[in-house]
Amino acid sequence: MIRPATPSDVPEILSMIHELAAYEKAAHEVRVTEEQLRATLFGDRPAAFAHMAEHDGEVAGFMLWFLTFSTWRGTHGIYLEDLYVRPRHRGGGHGFALITELARICAERGYQRLEWSVLDWNEPSIAFYEKLGAVRQDEWLKYRLTDEPLRRLGSRRD
After folding, report:
1. What is the 3-state composition of the chain as percent helix, strand, coil, each rounded to the nearest 5?
2. Closest CA to 68 of 95, 49, 53
3. Model confidence band, residue 154 (pLDDT cutoffs 50, 70, 90)
4. Range(s) of the domain holding residue 74
5. Are the C-beta atoms of residues 70 and 106 closer than 8 Å to each other?
């Protein structure tokens, strides 16, 4: 069963964010708190959205996503920030059901893109996404500013 997350899901979402970060060998990078997640997902102006996958009343996985905008297409799209299925539930169709729900939302709302990133070593996920018909975007390089370089640039006044 796939359903929208509720405020009571926040502790479980945070737990799975930690599980996902450990799987991706980046546990040390997680800084988000329950309070931040609650405000982001359920505050006055939600900046992101989450859905839960359940199996026999147990949380099997989740996805967290937000809206994007394409100047080329002139419409919103969805960026899938995280899709995670707990190891004991993998192979049960939960990941497929989650991403299918996002595709349904895109189609229902007239959005023309569903995008995400995957680590280059994560062969099981790459195979899963390519089986769906997703196309790797090798011509685009991803860049990121964080921490001190971001603060330094943001504090410039020239």
Report:
1. 40, 25, 35
2. 49
3. very high
4. 2-154
5. no
Q: Which amino acid is at 149?
A: P
Compute φ and ψ for 51, nearest 5 degrees: -130, 150
Q: How many domains does the chain have?
A: 1
What is the pLDDT averaged over residues 40-44?
Answer: 98
CATH number, domain with residue 142? 3.40.630.30
C-alpha–C-alpha distance, residues 17 and 64, integer Å: 10
Is-contact 114 77, C-beta < 8 A?
A: yes
Would strands 114-116 and 75-85 be described as parallel, antiparallel, or unpaired? parallel
- Kindly list the catalytic residues: 129
Total-model pTM: 0.92
DSSP run (H or E) holding 14: helix 10-23
